Amino acid sequence: MTTSLEEFLTARRAAGRRLLVPYVTAGAAPGWTDVVRAYADAGADAVEIGFPFSDPMLDGVTIQEASDRAIAAGTTVTEILREVTALDVGVPLVAMTYGNLVFQRSGAEFCAALATSGLRGLIVPDVPLEEAGDLADAAAKEHLDLVLLAAPSTSRDRLRQIAGRSRGFVYALTRMGTTGERGEVPEQAARLGRDLKELTDLPVLFGFGVSSPAQAAELARHADGVVVASALMRRLLDGARPRELGEYVASIRRALDGAVDREPDEHATLPRHRRRPDPQDQVGPLPRG
Amino acid sequence: MTTSLEEFLTARRAAGRRLLVPYVTAGAAPGWTDVVRAYADAGADAVEIGFPFSDPMLDGVTIQEASDRAIAAGTTVTEILREVTALDVGVPLVAMTYGNLVFQRSGAEFCAALATSGLRGLIVPDVPLEEAGDLADAAAKEHLDLVLLAAPSTSRDRLRQIAGRSRGFVYALTRMGTTGERGEVPEQAARLGRDLKELTDLPVLFGFGVSSPAQAAELARHADGVVVASALMRRLLDGARPRELGEYVASIRRALDGAVDREPDEHATLPRHRRRPDPQDQVGPLPRG
Amino acid sequence: MTEHALMSDPGTSGRFGDYGGRYVPESLIPACHEIEAAFRDAWADPGFRDRLTTLLTVYAGRPTPLTPAHRLSRELGITLLLKREDLTHTGSHKINNVVGQALLAQRMGKRRLLAETGAGQHGVATATAAALLGLRATVFMGERDIERQELNVLRMHVLGAEVVPVTTGSRTLKDACNEAMRHWVASVDDSYYCLGSVMGPHPYPWMVREFQRVIGEEARAQCAAELPAAVPDYVVACIGGGSNAAGTFAGFVDTTARLVGVEAEGGAAATFGRAGVLHGFRSLVLQDEHGQVQEAHSVAAGLDYPGIGPEHAHLRDGGRARYETVTDAEVVRALVRLARTEGIVAALESSHALAWVIRAAESGGIAPGSTVLLTLSGRGDKDIASIKELL
Amino acid sequence: MTEHALMSDPGTSGRFGDYGGRYVPESLIPACHEIEAAFRDAWADPGFRDRLTTLLTVYAGRPTPLTPAHRLSRELGITLLLKREDLTHTGSHKINNVVGQALLAQRMGKRRLLAETGAGQHGVATATAAALLGLRATVFMGERDIERQELNVLRMHVLGAEVVPVTTGSRTLKDACNEAMRHWVASVDDSYYCLGSVMGPHPYPWMVREFQRVIGEEARAQCAAELPAAVPDYVVACIGGGSNAAGTFAGFVDTTARLVGVEAEGGAAATFGRAGVLHGFRSLVLQDEHGQVQEAHSVAAGLDYPGIGPEHAHLRDGGRARYETVTDAEVVRALVRLARTEGIVAALESSHALAWVIRAAESGGIAPGSTVLLTLSGRGDKDIASIKELL
Ligand SMILES: Cc1ncc(COP(=O)(O)O)c(C=O)c1O
Ligand SMILES: Cc1ncc(COP(=O)(O)O)c(C=O)c1O
Questions:
Q1: What's the N-to-C CA distance of chain D in angstroms?
Q2: Would you say residue A267 has pLDDT above 70?
Q3: Among D174, D175, D185, whose Cβ lies nearest the Cβ of A176?
Q4: Basic and acidic residues bias: where (chains A, B) (predicted)?
Q5: Among B160, C184, D170, D190, which one is least packed by beta carbons within 10 Å?
């Protein structure tokens, strides 16, 4: 059996590494698969691939726009899967999309298709715990990790259930609100991170509003790593090339690596140029399933 | 005692003459008193002088416009009376206005002022029989003839009352509707004329919509004469001089005179130039009160 | 006329003290007689009354509620109750009168309704009743009002009515009345003139008050249920011609309630007018020293009228009602204030009554703790576009 | 779910057969739970029910009449009864739901109401209830709808609400929903999301239907008084999200009446949709072969929605209700026809229901002599400006 998303991330974390999962909306720009490659090359521990949906309820303007562009360009689930099948970047790929695409035929069919294309995880923000039962079973059958979300508003009791049911990692929302960049790291994020860490051994990654290397580094202190989406998508919409996006991911990578064991108030003065960390130093590349 | 409006008109009628009462809105044009003179010279048997009111309910657009012009030019009752006092045209002058001007102070005061200025009659279209009691008394006291109106819709019983109460003449409305020129002579006018003639010895004059000499002549067949207003006022608004207005009155005069004892279907072929009738041939000029 | 006879049948003369009467051209006298006779007959006929009540109930949405304005009351230190004519079909009290007159017209065998309109509410109500009963409708409306009440013009079109723009004079309600009367004279055989307020020749001021009496009667009963004292200290309504006020006052004229009619400062015939004759009746009229009728000026098209119903002039003379004025600015503020405290967007006309209540309550003119019944004669949808700039 | 349980409590899962549920981000789950608990508690509390009934009565103008459409009935050869939600305060059935939810929000200690709106009726109702209860209101409205329903935008401003233009997607109701949900996620602590139809995550579809049930219950009793058979042969309502239809159907689901929901041809999720998940619930959704939700297109802004309430999908699957479509052109003709036969200018939304009745009666789809109850969900004032060009 091949390494699962969860095994891969857990192993990397075990090696003392802060986890970094950058995001790209499939089809938002021609050659978006090069963006995935650039992310991987820049030290991503997994890459989240957004399957664009017309009504992305949990997404802010940036990812909405990326989704609209992708859909306008004719991006479909089938087409994304075709392109992903050809991708081998050495780290796991995780699909992120909305329930309506997942349930087009059935959750089982969708999971099977993802697995066949080599994806290792699935995030569906509008399918919460109560609605996730069948989908979780279907995913498990396909050795696909269904990642559940936890929010600052989630009760401790419910966090426990989410942590128990989630696979791959727990996606911890830094704040109430939609995706998009924000300045501060909210206190509630720190609390959520601490709570989840107490409740589970699964990796806990923060997402939503991670908008600078320094912020990523600070957030990572309260959990195991971060998902970075809007900050990258904004650059992509502004015309950034895969190489430039990769450089940005690398800068977050450096901040995360530097942040290990540092106090939060030192982050602002992190040296600009640090040795580019080599993921291979820590955990080997992902063998294709 | 001086000749009243009623005596004057009755005498002229007795002389076999069709009565003609042209109208002018006081103040509608500078030198409007010349219009009164021109009318008299052209063979009018009396002249109706409109005291302009802002809301002339029974008047059509032409007389409304004449009234608006007069009011805009600063025409007031006092001013009209001042000018009328200086007028001596040999035929009686009859005031026509609305109740609001009549009742400004009181009907009695208004009648007294008219009489003092030498006017011999008063027509108030929005003061019908039931509301006319006090006013009729006040007018009588001043030897001013309060002319009442009769309409095609008026019942025979009511016509009798109106005929009984009216002084000077009975103003018979040719048709339902406001003043203004109309093409045909309605059948209802003929009937109203016949009815009134049966009921009263007072002169009966048609008014409203008398818009051509031929029509005047035909109408006069059913009664004792006509009041001509809008047809003249339209010409005045269009810039006609007193002389021209006088010529138009003269043409009606000729038609009326020619109409005596003629059948209606001959009117269309009335000779254009007939001897201009001299009122003095019939009844002497009106001595000043 | 003795005190106990206030707001009763004015008899065949149609006189309310010195006011009222029937100052119309002889051509209209038979029509007025015919209408008076038909109305007397209908009003005494339980069948007609039933039919009217049924239509007002199942069609026009009566009874209208009495809404306690809780938040505004608290702010003003009084108990303010709103009689909600804004909730009737077509959105103002005008429908009460129009349904009555349209039924009467039908009973008289008429085929067409004529009407004048200012704010357009009476025109819309007339167009509505005409459609309901299968009659034609022709509505006269000043050009200026057509501009500022466009919504209502379009409503009349949709309802199938003919809207005739009046271009004379001030091009507002007064001129629309003149034109409607003129047209009526010319078409009195098949047309019924459906007058929109307590004005015009007898029997209109009386008849319209009777058709609007339902406001006051409902409110009287509702106040009795709502207020410990059964009767409010004040009964307040706005005055254009005065029909919503007359209908309201009729329910309270025999009580201790103080009756207050509120006029637009620029159209305050009861306050600044002199006795005169206009549109077929004798009453207080805004006029210059020479007797020329003045143009009224109000932000509310429905109050842009230089006269006041004759019965109001009589109530004023006798001291049974008093008449107050408010400015356009106060009115717009009152409209917004009610909207934001109670969630009710009242018509600009109705907001006159409210503006006076607010001023009086805030200045002590109405004692703290007083109970006030205010007739909210209509809703403000029609005014929204025109107050946009004033906000 | 067995037949007798139709239109009852969907339990904690919020499922109506295969539909419904709670497909929202985890961030909103606690809020949904909190609302469900609060609603269950309030709905079982006679004090809350009383307060709601009182406001609906003295403030919103309930009960609304049932108007027999005499002339149109004659033309169509049927008996057509109109349930007059157009006569409620603010002019549509939306107020029933909003007053309920606003009271609930207040009970929950919330300070602000959020709402999406299409035609603006729900937005106006929300702004109204907020003003009434002293809450703030923020209303999300598609830019395209802001243009075509300007009157309602101005009304919301006068009422003190903040109107947020939504510039994404089709710039209509669907996008306003997205934006409102997003905003709710970010402000769930002090804000209550006042959803405007029987859609969204559990408990909304159920709760909104319960708050709208008053339409059906009143109509049921009124039909019993009006019709020899007590129950009409057909019960017809238009469907945007489906709240006026759900409220109406709820009163008749246990009778023999045939229930008909009428959608806009360009937004007919029940007819052309496939099962999907949108805005927090599973139901029938207009979508392309790839699962992208399609833009609805209707002359009626309030029906421009690509989904349908989950309970309707369930009623359709079980055959208890059927769903029909009408074209924009039929709708405008129906609006004008009702205006000219009955003097009622209905909302474009409501005119969909009427358009179907007209077509069915004229084509024999409804047998001659049938009795039809039609919910007239709102008045057409808001639409007058936009249909001007279509007349
Ligand atoms: C809402 C409303 N209130 C009041 C009035 C004034 O009329 P009245 O004084 O006859 O009640 C109008 C007239 O158009 C109106 O539309
Ligand atoms: C008058 C009217 N009817 C119907 C609707 C559609 O809503 P629903 O299907 O929830 O009744 C709307 C929505 O705005 C509306 O304004």
A1: 46
A2: no
A3: D185
A4: 259-269
A5: D190
Distance CA B228, CA D301 (A): 60
Given the DSSP bridges, would you call strands C112-117 and C191-193 parallel, antiparallel or unpaired? parallel
CATH no. of D15-55+94-204:
3.40.50.1100
Burial class (CB in 10 A: 0-12, 13-18, 19+), B270: middle
**What's the Cα-to-Cα distance from C382 to each of B186, C144, D307, rounded to whole Å?**
44, 15, 33
Task: Tell whether C26 is within 8 A of chain B (Cβ).
Answer: yes
pTM value is: 0.93
Q: How confident is the model over C295-346, as pLDDT tens digits?
A: 899 999 899 899 999 999 999 999 999 999 999 999 999 999 999 999 999 9
Of B99, B131, B176, Cβ closest to residue C185: B176
Residues of A in contact with D21 (CB under 8 A): 130-131
Measure the CA–CA gap between C340 and D128, rounded to whole angstroms.
8
* Polymer length of chain A: 289
Looking at 3.40.50.2300, 3.20.20.70, 3.90.420.10, 3.40.50.300, the CATH number of the domain B5-282 comes to 3.20.20.70
| CATH number for the segment(s) C61-92+213-388 | 3.40.50.1100
Give yes or no for a contact between B149 and B125, defined as CB atoms under 8 angstroms apart.
Answer: yes
Closest protein CA for atom 13 of ligand 1: C302
Pocket test for ligand 1, best of C86, C121, C213, C248 (most atoms within 8 A of CB): C121
Contact B36, B63 (CB under 8 A): no
- Ligand number nearest CA of D240 is 2
Residues in chain C: 391
Contact C132 D71 (CB under 8 A): yes
Give percent of chain A above pLDDT 70: 87
What does the CA dihedral B27, B31, B36, B38 come to, rounded to 10 degrees?
-150
Q: Tell whether the model's pLDDT for residue B275 goes beyond 50.
A: no
pLDDT tens digits along A8-51: 999 999 999 999 999 999 999 999 999 999 999 999 999 999 99
Q: Give the closest residue to A62 by CA, choosing from A86, A102, A35, A28.
A: A28
Nearest residue CA, atom 5 of ligand 1?
Answer: C302
Is the model's pLDDT at D244 over the cut of 90?
A: yes
The alpha-carbon gap from B177 to the nearest alpha carbon of chain C, in Å, equals 4
Residue C173 gets the label, from left (phi > 0), alpha (psi -120 to 50) or beta, of alpha
- φ/ψ region of D238 (left if φ > 0, alpha if ψ in -120 to 50, else beta) reads beta
Q: Are C234 and C45 in contact (CB under 8 A)?
A: no
Which of D82, D93, D263 is the pocket-test mutation for ligand 2 (most atoms within 8 Å of CB)? D93
Question: Known catalytic residue: C377?
Answer: yes
Q: Are C15-55+94-204 and C61-92+213-388 equal in CATH topology?
A: yes
Answer for the pair D259, D315: CB distance below 8 angstroms, yes or no: yes
Contact status, residue D157 vs residue D128, Cβ threshold 8 Å: no
d(CA B69, CA D141): 53
Q: H-helix or E-strand containing D342? A: helix D328-342
Note whether D293 contacts A151, CB cutoff 8 Å: no
The verdict on B155 touching C (C-beta cutoff 8 Å) is yes
Each residue's pLDDT tens digit, A107-125: 999 999 999 999 999 999 9
The larger pLDDT score, comparing residue B276 to residue C320, is at C320
Q: Which atom of ligand 2 is nearest to the CA of D118?
A: 14
Average pLDDT over residues B128-153: 96
DSSP string, C142-205: EHHHHHHTHHHHHHHHHTT-EEEEE-STTSSHHHHHHHHHHHHHHHTTTEEE---SS-SSTTHH
